[in-house]
Amino acid sequence: MTEIPAQAPPAGAADDADKAPTAGARSGAGGASDTGGVDGTGGGALRIVHRSPLRKFLSSSPAYMGLVLLLLVLLFSALRPEAFPTTATGRNISLDISVLLVMAVGMTYVMVAGGFDLSIGSVLVFSGVVMAKTMSALGGDGALVVVAGMAAAVLAGVAWGLVNGLCITVLKVPALITTLGTMGAALGASQLLTGGNDVTTVPDALLTITTSRPLGFSWLVYVAALVAVAGGLVLAFTRFGRHTYLVGSNEESARRAGINVGRHLVRLYAISGGLAGVAGAMSLTRFATTTISGHATDALQVITGVVLGGTSLYGGIGTVLGTVVGIFIPAVLQNGFVVTHVQPYWQQVVIGFVLIAAVYVDHLKRARRDRS
Amino acid sequence: MADPLLEARGIGKSYGHVEVLRGADFSVARGEVTALIGDNGAGKSTLVKILSGALSPDAGEIRLAGERVAFGSPEDAHGMGIETVYQDLALAPELGSAENVFAGRELLKPGILGRLGVLDRRTMRDRARRAFAEMGTDVKDIEAPVAALSGGQRQSVAICRSVLWADKVVFMDEPTAALGVRQTGKVLELIRRVADRGIAVVLISHNMPEVLQVADRVQVLRLGRRVAEFAAAGTTVEQLVGAMTGALEGNAA
Ligand SMILES: Nc1ncnc2c1ncn2[C@@H]1O[C@H](COP(=O)(O)OP(=O)(O)OP(=O)(O)O)[C@@H](O)[C@H]1O
Ligand SMILES: [Mg+2]
Predict the structure, then answer these.
(1) Which among A100, A214, B53, B88 is least buried, having the fewest CB atoms inside 10 angstroms?
(2) Biased composition, Gly residues: where in the chain (chain A) (predicted)?
């Protein structure tokens, strides 16, 4: 017997010995880290290089996009110093984005886990309708009625999220299709509940919230800020957040690491739905009407912001901080164009191409990183 | 052979009508690298899956340190100090090495923060860094995403992860199959060091010279049965191939 099934090394296999420390930095679960190196023991000359957290952050997508945002603000401020850098503009922009931002935090979780949620705009509408209906069913103008209505809105959102999550994990219907389905279903259900007409009667207590502006900002802005801060901290610093990255990065690896992937995904869709419910309550509070036909493109706007902020379409990468920046950029452009008398339609054109460019750059970084 | 740490007797496993394992025996000892070889389809991966809790056998018994055990799941085996480095590594490419090492076993901060689920990143990073240094691996930047590492470095991360959690047995299914000469050498050194820590290492490989280089003993699986056992020292590639193909039935050890 002379045949030896010994394997030849694959031709052209890379030799890593002289490779420089990798420079491809990423947003990942960014955060504090100490600096320092460890000298090797036992394995020859071993150097463990440690990038400083600052350098790591500066090369991440949120930092690039944050710079873009800053430049936009400076540009518009320079062009219209009397009209743009004012508290009124700040108020408008922050109010405009608050509802989208709440949904975008949920979308960030779902997309970091490699999922997708198109249904949020319709779930927002449905939750608003449920809230309005609950409040009118309870009757009265008290604060308690409003609280009950808000709870109902959030529960309705969570319910749609659970439907999404279960269809995706148990029935294995792709997220894109599942949430496309519930996007239609939730909107249709809202129209069934209302006969197609917006509900415009809301309790006085809700109108009080609508008109009160502590420190000059609407309550909605505070709610959005709270959701963003809490969402950002949980994603970056907790086990729940880490599992979200693991599931999005490599589902099989997460499973083998003992993570219940299905349960985690269901939770994430429930969070996304629940936050869409919160957004529904916020929208009803802001406009005092259910705005049934006004949210067809919400999901797309949210996804645009999340992707601009550096969250990967393939999962495993993304931060809430990036999402905040990504949601701000279109709103700043919009307001900036208005004050500089550029036709605001340009905003959509510009954002469309910026989005494509952002994903292209992400792609390039990915390709460079995966060169080995 | 020293007292076997993990021992399997008469393991049988069928997929439908196909009998993949027909009363296979297998044993590994502490501190030794035991190679498991055999032709394609001999049942090596199936046997390893059974011994690591990923599959349950139809027949036979498994003993760990003399005690009879049954694994309901890989987690059961993990709990007993048995880990597996899968052929596809199962790393999360977007995350760093330290994050991969602690995947699913994250350490939480002490006190109230820990109860809220807050990660103790510093401790995890330090422990991972120490483990990499102790094992002499050449992972330079433990925060760089695993996707940015070379194949050999990635393999090292996967092996270090299993070693950090295994105090008894580590299974490695073709850990060098995708590597070049130089990286293969490094991974083999690493495998040797794992065994030197007193862990029983099971190495599946189709590369006979490599097997003879790193293993202490070799067990040959053919058609679902162990057909031969060799001490690596003094054994030739021809003998191994003969046992694998059935040209040479023998029990040289
Ligand atoms: N899930 C399965 N269902 C049906 N047959 C299977 C399954 N898994 C493995 N087999 C069969 O069992 C036999 C042994 O497979 P196994 O993967 O254990 O072989 P192996 O020794 O690891 O081979 P290789 O060297 O190619 O990796 C093969 O004939 C294979 O087709
Ligand atoms: Mg195999």
Answers:
(1) A214
(2) 27-38
With a CB cutoff of 8 Å and minimum separation 6, the contacts of B164 are B101, B127, B128, B131
pLDDT in tens, B234-246: 888 999 999 988 8
Which positions ≥6 away from A322 have C-beta within 8 Å?
Answer: A27, A60, A61, A62, A65, A306, A309, A310, A311
CA–centroid distance, residue B49 to ligand 2 (Å)? 10
CATH of the domain at B235: 3.40.50.300
Residue B196 lies in a domain: yes
Min Cα distance A253 → chain B (Å) is 4
Which residues line the pocket of ligand 1, CB cutoff 6 A?
A: B 15, 18, 20, 38, 40-46
Q: What is the ipTM of this complex?
A: 0.83
- The domain tally of chain B equals 1
The structure tokens listed for A178 are: 């599942």
Indicate yes or no: pTM above 0.95: no
**What would the CATH number be for the domain defined by A53-367?**
1.10.3470
The answer to whether residue B75 sits within a structural domain is: yes
B23 close contact with A: CB closer than 8 A: no
pLDDT of residue A52: 62
- At residue A60, the pLDDT reads 75
**B142 occurs within a structural domain:** no
Closest-lying ligand 1 atom to the alpha carbon of residue B38: 21
Nearest Cα residue to atom 17 of ligand 1: B45
Dump pLDDT digits (tens) for A73-95: 999 999 999 888 888 889 889 99
B179 band by pLDDT with thresholds 50, 70 and 90? confident
The 10 Å CB-count burial string (b at 16+, else e) for A62-83 is: bbbbbebbeebbeebbeebeeb
- Residue to mutate among B140, B171, B249, with most A CBs inside 10 A, is B140
Domain carrying residue B9: 4-81+166-245
